[in-house]
Write a structure and sequence with these properties.
The protein is mostly helical and about 270 residues long. About 80% of the residues lie in helices and about 5% in strands. The structure holds zinc ion (ZN). Zinc ion (ZN) binds next to loops.
Length: about 270
């Protein structure tokens, strides 16, 4: 009697064990997918931050150039003003009209030069104002991105830390369950799971339909599933079907979708502790 129990599980036990295995594997999959997106988001933010830093540096260089232009023009003005003063002094000692005209023209030229410099200074100062605003906007963006990066990084660290312990526990459970299932059934379960988009190799019956592909299950097949005497697969997707009662699922609770939300909310509760 005892030997028989060890050698072969009943169909009921096989299905139950497979479903437990599926639950553990799905939890591992979910952890992987939770972690899977965050590193990418962190990478994106890091790239954007790098881009913003380069942009801010470029704008600062432009501001520096305009400021240099302003001080250069101011130096030009000072030089022109000195010339004007010198020419004006020379006007007192002119010997003839020609000399007077030459000096007057020089004074006029230098005065125009000063006006031109003033115009260029105003233009440069306007540009500086614009660039300062542009820089401020980018600095604000940078701060926002850096704050977001901090959040995402700590979220990722938390998940990695949290899932590491959970995943180790789940992997041990998977190993344990796998040894209970006979190799042929385990191999076909793994094959079904590998080919299934949502990683589900065994699903429970939901509203008279397969919980994997949602195709209706004929009434006779549903009865067979309820009997727990044979391993029955979905005729459409090939997934192994299990009676929800046997799987420990309350039938009034619909769907995979709900199941996932439930798991997530448990995870969140853990986070809040
Ligand atoms: Zn199906």
């Amino acid at each position: 009697m005892a030997r028989r129990e060890n050698a072969e599980l009943s169909v009921e036990e096989k299905l139950k064990t497979l479903f437990q295995l599926q639950t553990s594997l799905s939890a591992i999959d979910e952890n992987k997918s939770l972690r899977g997106e965050l590193p990418l988001e962190v990478q994106d933010l890091e790239d954007e931050i790098e881009g913003l830093k380069i942009r801010i540096e470029k704008i600062q260089n432009e501001i520096d150039e305009f400021q240099k232009a302003v001080s250069d023009r101011k130096a030009d003005i000072l030089e022109a003003q000195t010339s004007v003063m010198r020419y004006k002094n020379q006007l007192d000692d002119v010997k003839n009209n020609r000399e007077y005209d030459t000096l007057s023209k020089e004074i006029e030229f230098q005065t125009l030069e000063i006006e031109l410099c003033n115009k260029k200074i105003r233009e440069a100062q306007q540009k500086i104002k614009e660039k300062m605003l542009e820089k401020e906007k980018n600095v604000n963006d940078l701060e926002d991105h850096e704050n977001e990066l901090d959040l995402k990084r700590s979220e990722l660290d938390d998940i990695i830390e949290e899932t590491r312990a959970e995943e180790d526990r789940l992997k041990i459970k998977v190993k344990e369950l796998e040894t209970k299932i006979d190799p042929r059934l385990l191999a076909s379960f793994k094959r079904i799971r590998k080919n299934a988009r949502n990683g589900l190799g065994i699903v429970y019956v939901q509203r008279d339909a397969c919980g994997g592909c949602f195709n209706k299950i004929p009434p006779q097949r549903q009865l067979d599933i309820k009997m727990h005497k044979k391993v029955i697969v979905c005729e459409y997707c090939g997934r192994i079907l299990i009676d929800p009662e046997l799987a420990g699922i309350k039938t009034d609770k619909p769907g995979e979708e709900k199941k996932k939300t439930r798991k997530r909310s448990i995870r969140r509760k853990k986070d809040e502790e």
